[in-house]
Design goal:
This protein has a single domain, classed as q2cbj1_9rhob like domain (Jelly Rolls, Sandwich). By secondary structure, the protein is of the alpha+beta class. The chain contains seven helices and 13 strands. The strands form three sheets. It has a seven-stranded mixed sheet with strand order 1-9-4-11-2-12-13. The protein has helices at residues 19-26, 28-38, 49-65, 69-73, 83-89, 92-102, 271-288, and strands at 40-45, 106-116, 124-127, 140-146, 157-159, 170-172, 184-186, 196-197, 204-209, 214-216, 225-233, 246-251, 260-261.
Length: 321
């Protein structure tokens, strides 16, 4: 870690100065009230459609070059590997919106691509992200950025308004087509008539609270649905499942030093970036499986095997759609 990146350093990312960023700041109070009332806000403008297409093409090209396990691993915490994802994580329009709900000091805790291929039968069950993250408080905000159209047909996220006011019990199903690491789902049924579809065009994003109940259904369209989820936390949050966890300072100061602050990638897939990424994934995997009892026929990931029915899942990231 660069000594300049110690807790207390001022992050270099300035607030947005462009017209769209100023518009977001003018609407901060409305955004904050909607977020507090519903537990989510959408659609918000991050980048234009052309930039979204460029990022999607970079991602697709990288996935074609990747081999074996490195392909799946590079989808998790890609902001530690790629400069173009790091730039998106620090985009002023996104940070201005997140600052409106979390405050001026922001850490990027993790990020991950969520991909549904055309006619993909996989789904994400109703869940709350923060239930499995081990954070001391749900001061967690996810920015979900659409890189392709997120429609009802393609399996966009659906969110339950007001569900962020209460932490709910979950059960672990390990269902074969569930994209979540444990197939976790809310123990009590949700009436889908109360859900709101999060419809996004490429370049738009949504924000949702760590306790907002959400799901997504299969992709019945002929196009891939690709989104990048970026999870931001306030620096005062702690990791309760481990003495060690990582984050990246993206705005303001970290006065608490609860997380090991990692440097951004100096170049795409540089040796130092790959090393930091592996370190972060190892800690994240340990946190996710702390206290998890091995089920019959389902080995812990530290055994070097993959639990049955888990193909295509990430074991470094249990939530979002």
């Amino acid at each position: 870690m660069n000594p300049d990146n110690e807790a207390g350093r001022i992050a270099p990312t300035p607030p947005a100065a462009d017209a769209q960023g100023s518009a977001i700041r003018c609407q901060v109070q409305d955004l904050r009230l909607r977020y507090q009332h519903d537990g989510f806000v959408f659609p918000l403008e991050a980048i234009d459609r052309g930039e979204a297409q460029r990022i999607l093409q970079l991602f697709e090209a990288q996935q074609l070059r990747a081999r074996g396990k490195s392909r799946g691993r590079s989808r998790q915490r890609p902001h530690l590997l790629f400069t173009w994802i790091d730039a998106l994580v620090r985009h002023p329009r996104i940070l201005d919106a997140v600052e409106a709900v979390l405050g001026p000091d922001l850490l990027c805790w993790n990020s991950g691509f969520f991909i549904k291929a055309p006619h993909d039968e996989r789904f994400v069950s109703w869940h709350q992200d923060a239930a499995f993250f081990g954070l001391s408080e749900p001061r967690l905000c996810t920015a979900w950025i659409a890189l392709s159209p997120a429609t009802a047909e393609s399996g966009c996220m659906q969110m339950l308004p007001g569900s962020h006011h209460l932490s709910r019990p979950h059960v672990q199903t390990f269902a074969s087509n569930n994209m979540l690491s444990r197939g976790q789902t809310l123990a009590d049924p949700i009436d889908p008539r109360h859900a709101r579809p999060v419809l996004l065009e490429p370049g738009q994003f949504s924000l949702h609270h760590g306790l907002t109940a959400h799901r997504s259904e299969p992709n019945h369209s002929a196009l891939s649905r690709v989104g990048l989820a970026i999870r931001y936390i306030a620096p005062e949050v702690r990791q309760t499942l481990s003495r060690r966890d990582t984050a990246v300072l993206v705005r303001g100061r970290d006065r608490h030093a609860h997380f090991e602050l990692l440097d951004p990638p100096d170049a795409d897939l540089s040796p130092r970036a790959v090393q930091r990424h592996r370190h972060a994934l190892k800690l994240a995997q340990d946190i996710l499986y702390t206290g998890l009892t091995a089920r019959a026929g389902r080995a812990r990931p530290e055994d070097g095997r993959t639990p049955a029915g888990s193909a295509g899942r990430s074991f470094a990231d249990p939530g979002t759609s």
